[in-house]
Design brief:
It is built from six helices and three strands, in the order ααβααββαα. The chain is mainly alpha-helical. The radius of gyration is 18 Å and the shape is elongated.
């Protein structure tokens, strides 16, 4: 049992339950912008720059066929476009369209606001501690940069 009598939960339960919470916030935000959760993730990953399909597959943890379907649907919706890779004539890079860039800017800002709200009851020092501890987990596990900090340059 992960809950103690005083209402505290252990690290494992806290991480798993917080993942569900953040995923729900992200999914609700995506839905309100007419996106699936995976489309929202794809657009956020593409914010800083275009990527090749193999890079995207690794970052998003998707098999080639799943990624191809996601990019196809996003392309049909006018959110991304495939461009020839300047280094490899056989490959393509996926980039945001102007419509996709505008939509993801709004989606990103609103999603960041909603996730930030989750810690609204924390003191600044508590937020810093949480960020430092979670940052260590992310760094130690070499999690790809799929979502950048809102106040950092993209």
């Amino acid at each position: 049992m992960s809950e103690d009598v005083d209402g505290q939960i252990g690290a494992v339960a806290a991480l798993v339950r917080s993942t569900f919470l953040v995923n729900a916030v992200y999914a609700n935000s995506a839905r309100e912008y007419g996106l699936t959760q995976q489309q929202g993730q794809l657009l956020c990953v593409l914010m800083p720059q275009p990527y090749g399909m193999s890079e995207l597959g690794a970052m998003l943890g998707l098999a080639k066929s799943s990624l191809t379907g996601l990019v196809d649907r996003s392309e049909r919706n006018g959110l991304v476009q495939r461009r020839p890779d300047p280094q490899d004539s056989r490959a393509v890079r996926v980039a945001l369209t102007p419509r996709g860039a505008k939509l993801v800017d709004e989606f990103y800002a609103e999603t960041c606001r909603r996730v930030e709200e989750l810690t609204s009851g924390f003191a600044p020092a508590e937020r810093d501690t949480l960020a430092a501890l979670l940052g260590r987990i992310v760094a130690d596990n070499k999690v790809p940069t799929v979502f950048v900090e809102p106040d950092r340059p993209r």
